[in-house]
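Q: Entry one of two.
A:
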Amino acid sequence: MALVNPLTQDANAEVAELAKFFNETLGFCPNSVLTMQIRPAIARSFINLNKAVMENHGRVTAELKRLIGYITSANTGCRYCEAHTILAAKRYGGSDGRLNNIWQFRQSDLFTSAEKTAFEFALAASSVPNAVDASISQAMNEYWDEGEIVEILGVISLFGYLNRWNDSMATTLEEGAISAGEAHLKQNGWQVSKHL
């Protein structure tokens, strides 16, 4: 059961307008945002940060950003965000092969060396304590420029916030996200868990 119940989508006009962003990424406004809007300034700030982090500038594509968010969320154990990121990756062109084999990325030829490096960085950066070391930093600089590294770490950091928010709140998972989780993540042990 959720710690705090989300408000309706029309509870705050300014938040509702900003939240239209999620209709593109997920097809609905997430319950996490509807809970944040209990304090509208938090919801507004979060939505604007989310939009800035997920803006595309080149090689760090919308699909790749969602897969990085997935790796980060899975590493921290947030089932809510795992389902959302895999749904969004699919909506941004992720193939069933890439989505179904994300945890086999090290051995898979579905992912480039640069993507694999970004995933290793996501695992290290989302670990507690932080596990980014000199070899991971060197590999990141080999494959990605400084702007791209900022984008990638922006995604990891954004999901660090979301993972703590949704796991602590036990945010109720929406039907579309549940379907995506069951379709692409169940074989790796994903379940709705406390997000009912």
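Q: Entry two of two.
A:
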Amino acid sequence: MQRYFIDTAIENARISGEDARHIERVMRMKQGDNIVVVAQNTAYICTIEGFEGDEVVIEATGQTIPSPELPIQITVACGLPKGDKLELITQKATELGMFALLPFEAERSIVKWDKKKGAKKQERLQKIAKEAAEQAHRTHIPTVFEPISFKQLVQQIDHFDAVFIADEEDAKAEKRTRFAEKLKNVYEMKSKSMLIIFGPEGGISRQESEALLQAGAQTMSLGPRILRAETAPLYALSAISYEFE
């Protein structure tokens, strides 16, 4: 069944806008067809009662679908990467269970966030997250935040139960603490939120790494191979899923 998100409670809810057009014109659904409607992080099986103007009238059947969300909220912070890599990270990380995306202006970020075009780009990224959440049958759409400065990123660390940074110098070390071992500690502490930090192309600088470690972050080893900026977050999310699910 097709899945759609709404911003209101399920009682007397209607679907409007682009989703309504998708139901009627693209999917060509009719009265009596069933769809899944996610309201307030719960997925309900609903029946289409009819079409009124640009809205789809729905009624909940009383049946719900279990949530597939990770038991820990994972926020991905990534240094602004080149090209369309941020779009790829948004899409794939949403499929893998990311709770929120927090881009930041890293020392080695080549790309600079265009304030004039930023709102439209952020809107596009949010739309990508919504579509990926629907495809992955999630009950939460990750929030894509406007990029922040590195100083602001450091200030966010105290808001999370656990914070990890992907540092390529750690990957090169002969003796590394396996990420799986650190995740077991997080799991045993029943942590509810985690921030995982990744640099852009070129990685996190030594100065940034030291600042994050002093603020309470830990390093995470993603293996002996150096991963691309868009690959590392997906690797980490997969490892977290394996440990927690």
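A: Comment on entry two: The chain has a mean pLDDT of 93. The chain has eight helices and twelve strands.
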